[in-house]
């Protein structure tokens, strides 16, 4: 049976809305000038969900330009955790199946990974943009020999306009990723908070470069 990609994408977006409205149970684990990172046990898999929240010094349009999940987008240039990003199949104007590969990380303890996700883009009435994703299988993406297949459980980024502050954007992001393979839990638990802090830091540099 064919996967209901649109339905899975909608469900991931719904979950992001629930996460956004439910601030309970998150425990802070890392704070930088750009982001505060917290975690709680995931309800989706036997790992943790992570929440990043920060304000990026740029308009929502500029922030979205840097993070939007499109082929040839800016993200492969600035996000150190994204080596390659390709759209495998466009399901509709707002839903696509994508493959992301990541370079080795954490002093090469984490070997290159690949993720196949259905991604949904949604705009809300207040101007908030959401990119939500969850893992799927696709006939054009069998597992590749040089990569460990990882799995993103419902995750996403909200670009939220700040009333009266056109040049600042609240970025609220949720990550819950099973990296796959045989990694010690301590490695996984230290990788994500560091990786999310780097995501916000590199994004902040990227939007400044975009405006320059």
From TrEMBL:
<keyword id="KW-0446">Lipid-binding</keyword>
<dbReference type="GO" id="GO:0120020">
    <property type="term" value="F:cholesterol transfer activity"/>
</dbReference>
<keyword id="KW-0445">Lipid transport</keyword>
<dbReference type="InterPro" id="IPR002913">
    <property type="entry name" value="START_lipid-bd_dom"/>
</dbReference>
<dbReference type="InterPro" id="IPR043556">
    <property type="entry name" value="StARD5/6"/>
</dbReference>
<dbReference type="InterPro" id="IPR023393">
    <property type="entry name" value="START-like_dom_sf"/>
</dbReference>
<dbReference type="GO" id="GO:0070508">
    <property type="term" value="P:cholesterol import"/>
</dbReference>
<protein>
    <submittedName>
        <fullName>STAR5 protein</fullName>
    </submittedName>
</protein>
<dbReference type="GO" id="GO:0015485">
    <property type="term" value="F:cholesterol binding"/>
</dbReference>
<comment type="function">
    <text>May be involved in the intracellular transport of sterols or other lipids. May bind cholesterol or other sterols.</text>
</comment>
<feature type="domain" description="START">
    <location>
        <begin position="1"/>
        <end position="212"/>
    </location>
</feature>
<dbReference type="Pfam" id="PF01852">
    <property type="entry name" value="START"/>
</dbReference>
<keyword id="KW-0813">Transport</keyword>
